Amino acid sequence: MKNLFLNSSRGWVGMDINQSAIHMAQVERTGTEYAIGAIWTAFQPAPRIDVSEKRAPAADNPQIALESMIEQAKRARSLFSSNSAGIAVGGGVVEYREFELEIEKPSELDGAVRSELEKEQGYDSDQSVVKAWELPTGRKLRNRQQSAAVVTANYDFSMWLGNMISQAGYAPEALDALPCALARASEMFLRGADHPCLMVHISDACTTLTLVHQGLPILTRVLNHHGFEKMLVPLASEFAISPAEVNLLLMKAATEGSRQMESPNELMEIVSEFQLRFVQSLAGEVYRTLEYIRAEHGNSEPGGILLCGNGSIMPMLSLQFEQLLEIPTETWSLAGSEQVERGMPVSLYAVAAGLSAIAWEEN
Question: What dotted CATH number matches 10-360?
Fold first, then answer.
């Protein structure tokens, strides 16, 4: 990842693909200012399932779950001025790892990464696409050790996904890792400020914490038991509706903003109770991560937290984080066009915006 601020005034189409939706965005740049020019979300038309389940059966097969959403994305093609696409896929399809390697020079990096990956049970080098790069050595390491970020993806699935997206009218340019997209989104929000930031991305299945410093993801932690569904599923059971319907309810509250909060009703009071339990548990994990950063990455202690992802639509979430963690917290955002302002909360599109910004990176 290098300097974002190069030639074109419009980025690629960022496609943030997860189990319940594809969030798409195209970022525009004027000087050092960034804005989202267009957005689109394709939702998975999932069958109604028992609220005790966490996912529809189709989620076990990413290809089945994705086909209808990519078809919806095809209909949105005219919204975007570019067909070049940067893509990130959740649910473990694109995996991000950090290794501490015994190497003496950069040319040894790829070989050391392969050796580490081959130690993992089930890893198949013939069916994997791998990319690795060095991370800044801000943590306390022994001599000759180098921190490295590693991205892997299944080769067959990557080829299938690229073909499907091409058929929808887009030109897949890069399959990216979530922490890298979050780092770009952070850099755009902070407008080049060089102080570290902790990105908290709350997706359906997990929450990803990425420490960003000088535009680079230097530490990532995935909380597999703190996904947004941990709140959606119990609420769905309470209301006897589906998790998707609970999500739409929260989306409505988010778009109505303060008007919704000024006249709380019984339904929103129940939501608040479930949300507080979820946020307290999540904040506890974020606190432990901050303590680790202070101990091991003292030079990169974050000055604040940025919230994004599906779970960022929860009412008053940034205020709750500030009260529980005593650290400045904001919900990620960028200015947007009229189409964006009339749409869903911009924090849903942080990853897509970060993918759009790949267009301005040096090769």
Answer: 3.30.420.380
